[in-house]
């Protein structure tokens, strides 16, 4: 369970998304809008620069955990988009798509790292 310390930011991001979807708190919406594009850029950079950056030590966080967190984030935002007003509905669909892209990029980076470790 030591890996939970390395997953605190991901858990916090999911809790902020829950707060935004469930309570519609504006601060949570701003936090999600700032964090999500940043995370997307970082995941894309990690995939593109994976060999240059080397293997990041993630404390052996299991892959199933990230699949669960990213799936929850996408599901929460899709759920929130169903019940949001017309103005924020499209915004939540965009965020859900961004989290789906983060999920795909994370898995691609993980598979690339595994393949490079096996070949060396």
Tell me the layout of helices and strands:
Layout: H1 3-6, H2 8-23, H3 26-48, H4 50-53, H5 63-83, H6 86-119
Helix pairs in contact: 2-3, 2-5, 3-6, 5-6
Could you explain the architecture of this structure?
The chain is mostly helical and 120 residues long. The chain has one domain (3-119). Helices cover 85% and strands 0% of the residues. The protein contains 6 helices and no strands. The longest helix is centred in the last third of the chain and has 34 residues, at 86-119. The protein is elongated, with a radius of gyration of 15 Å. The two termini are 29 Å apart.
Quick description:
With 120 residues, this protein is an all-alpha fold. The chain is built from 6 helices and no strands. Helix content is 85%, strand content 0%.
Describe the biggest sheet? none
Measured between the Cα atoms of the first and last residue, the distance is: 29 Å
The tally of helices reads 6
Q: What count of domains describes the coordinates?
A: 1
Radius of gyration: 15 Å
Number of strands: 0
Strand content: under 5%
Label the structural class: mainly alpha
Descriptive tags:
120 residues, mainly alpha
């Amino acid at each position: 369970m030591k890996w939970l310390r390395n997953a605190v930011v991901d858990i916090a991001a999911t809790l902020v998304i829950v707060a935004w979807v469930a309570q519609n708190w504006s601060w949570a919406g701003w936090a999600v809008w700032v964090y999500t594009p940043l995370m997307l850029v970082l995941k894309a950079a990690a995939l593109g620069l994976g060999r240059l950056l080397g293997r990041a030590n993630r404390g052996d966080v299991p892959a199933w955990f990230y699949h669960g967190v990213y799936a929850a984030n996408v599901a929460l935002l899709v759920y929130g988009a169903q019940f949001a007003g017309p103005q924020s509905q499209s915004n939540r669909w965009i965020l859900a798509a961004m989290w789906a892209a983060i999920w795909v990029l994370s898995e691609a980076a993980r598979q690339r790292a595994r393949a490079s470790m096996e070949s060396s």
